[in-house]
Structures are given as structure tokens and as C-alpha cells.
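Hi V.,

You were right to ask for the full record rather than a summary. Here it is.
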Amino acid sequence: MAIEARALKRSRTKTERTGARSIPKMGLNRRSRPNKPKAQLPKYSTLVSLIKALGEFDLITDASGTVVGFWASRRPRYGRQFKTVVGTRLDTLVEAPVASEIQTLVGLTAARGRREELKFRVTVRGVQRSFSICAVPLGLNESGVSAFCLAVRDVTDRVEAIRTVAEREAFLAKVEEIANFGSWEMDLKTNAVALSAQLTKIYELSPREKWSRETYWERMHPNDRLRVRRLTSKALTDGRAVEYVARYCAHDGRVRVHLAHLLPLLDENGKVIRAMGVIQDVTGHADSDQELRRLSQQIMNEQDNQRRHLARELHESAGQSLAALKMTLGQLREAMSENPELAPSLLESAALLADSTVREVRTVTYLLHPPMLDDAGLGPALRWYTKGFAERSGICATLELSEPFPRYSQEIETTVFRVVQEALTNVHRYSGSSCAEIKLWHERSTLLIEIRDRGCGFPPAADPLERAKLGVGISGMRERVEQLDGEFEVNSIPGKGTTVRVALPTAALHGLAQGPRTSSAFRP
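Predicted structure:
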């Protein structure tokens, strides 16, 4: 019985294993499943939408408009249908306006014989990118429908590089204009010369006038020509840079002085094949250099005088007070143990000395740059300074301000304060006047300042070098005013006094009162 049961069990297992497929099972027959509809390829209405979906791609069509080749850098959203692009017609992928735009691009490329392209700015994942589209014709059939290759590339890096180069070229052109120099380059094989725009201005060339190597030697001053030829010939032979100064003869006979730098350019064999250089017009620089040296010397002298004055002020005021405070504190320390009754009076003396020192240091720092100028404005700062100047110098100084007196920009207020400060300093040092008058008023958009004294004055035609004892006072005031496009004037009559007048074009920051405008910036 056991043997029969085991045989029956094996028979049933074999039957189930070999005959399972013959037994129908509900829901397991694949043929009984309903067929899903095949997904359709999306049609793109614009080139931008096509680029957003595919990124960079290549698409090749035959003469019938059927896609025979396709590649894209990004798989679009329709997933498995991505591979079904090949074998479909182009009009199933894009709408009619897009297809027409592509055909137009193909026609332009074929007609002009060169690759034409369109550029688009496309936002990809929140970032602006630049793409180029070009369509190269591959053939035409009888109906005029062309086979072509459509290529889309991300050219953001190329566009940025071109923009950077253009910005740098514009920057270099601006630098040449500011520094008044121009650049040139010459091919030694062809003798072709290229000049920068600024160099054509320096040479005073017309737009149609040609420039050559021979023209350069013709325009050079005869007395400099032989020397410069030898220098440049040796530089080109040795392949070394050279610098020289030569005179240039303009069309109208004027002689200009040019500083030139020549740099030979070598090939891989060490042979000079090109040359480049710069030309700078340095006419009149000798006088400017002399004036600059004179002003620099005056600035150094004035700085030394200012340091000496500051050191003397600190030594005579704060230094003496601090020395007295130190001695008083020493006495206070001894009195604490030996004579306690004397300690309160010594402590009071120390406190008074400390207060005096603080006031003296504050006065010195205020003279360097008064905080009141930034906080309260020009009017209160000038009132404070004029009052302190009168007390320190014994000169009767008066200040007259038009009312209401507005706030101006920081540059204007600082310039006016320094001009008044320097003018009063000159009154105290050199004029011998017992009085000084300061007036400030505005007429429309112009701030007018006048500082007058009744002192000894100085000859108006005197050599500036003879007035070097004034330091950089007048020169410094003039430079400050001219930096703000203002007018500066000094009138001095020996024995009658000096008047400094300043006119600054400016718009007040608050409540500028409008007054009548005179024909000149200065009152008669």
C-alpha cells in the first residue's frame, strides 16, 4: 500500500508538471489582455521648445522629409518613443511654422554658400544658455524639398568668450585714449601695418589715408631718422625690445615728441616675423614733470610743517598737561599713606588736569577732521571753526551764511571746509591782518565762497617759486576746487589785502533756496 501511494503521488506530480499549460487559468492568458494604444510623439510648436526638450541634437532627413538619423544630448519626456524618431517624417515632430523656419535656414545656407545659423537664449533648468541652430543642405529633389542636417549646439561658452574679448578690446581702447598712446602691429613679410584707433588720432590721419612703413619714416624729424633707423634695425635683427624718443612732423608743420616702444615677435625657429609696439605723445611732459616735482617738493615741505605743528601743539598742550597729571598722581600716591588729608585736593587737581588734557586732544583731532562736518553739516562746522580760529589767533574772524543754508554732498562740504581752513591759516601766517571775513551764499545751482583779509597781500605777477613759502596752500585749494569742476580765483593787492573766491556748481541735498543768477560766477 505504501508503495502504491508513493507511485500515485509521483504520477500526480508529473502530470501537474507536464500538463500545467493545458489547464486554462482565468486572467493568465496574455492574448486575452486588451492592447494599449501606442503613444504619439509630441509636436513642437517653436524651436525654443524643441531645444528645451532635446538640448543639443543632430537630426538628418532625406529628400522626402523622413528622419534617417537622430541624436540628442538629453532624453525627452516621452521616454521609449525617443527611439522611434528615426523613420518618422519631420512634420510629425514639429509643427508647420517650425518646419518652414528650418527650410528657410536651409535655403539661406544653400544660396549663400556658407553656413547660416540662428541663435536663441533658452532657459534650461533655471539657467540662461545660448544655443545655435544651423541647417546644412544635403540634396534637393524635383519638388524642391531638401535633405538636410539640422545641428543644435550649446554655444554659451563661445558667446561668453566673444563677449569677454569684445569687452577687453573696448577696455584697451579706452586705456589707450586715457593714457594718450596708440598701438601698432606689422607683418615683416608683407610690410602690412595695422594701427589702433587711438594711434590714428595721434598721427592725425584721415579715415581714407593709408599708413605704411615708408610713411612713418617720412613723417619722422630728419635729425632723428638715422638714429631711430639704426635702433629699430638692430632690435629686429637681435629680436630684442627697444625704446626711443623721436620727433614727429604733423601736416601743419607742428613738431610733436613721441615715446616709442618696439617689441619683435619670433616664430618657433627664433626668427622675427612680426613686430608690435606703442606710441605715446609726450609733448610738453618736460614742463609738466618740472611742475610736478615742484608741487611734490611743496607737498613734502607742507607735510613736514604740519607734522611739526601737530607735534608742537601736542607737546605744548596735551604733553604738558599729561606731565603735570603724572606728577600729581605721584603726589597723590604718597599722600595716601603719609598725609591722607591732602589726598582730596590732589585728586581734584588730577581730575582737572585730565579734563584739560581731553579738551586739548579733542581740539587737535577736531582740527584734523571735525566730526561736526559729517554730523551737522558745513554751516555749523564753519561756525565752530571760525570761533575757535578767532580765539586761538586773536584775529577778528566773521562768518556770514545765507539763510537757509542747506546740506551739500560730502565732497562739496569737505572741499569748502578745507578751502576756508587753508585760507584762514594763510591769513594768520602771512597777511598780518587783524580781521578776516568769510561769506558763503548760493545762487541757483552754484555755491559761492569768499574769504577776505586786510593784510599785506602779495604781488599778483610774482613768480610762483618766490611764493613757495605759502606751501601748497593756493595750489592745493585750486586743485580741490577744479576736481569738482569749480572756479578758483585769488586777487591780491600789496598793502590792501587778499581775496579768495570759489564757485562750485552743485545742487543742495535739502531745501536749496533759488536766487537770481548773475552773468558771472563771481560777484564784481
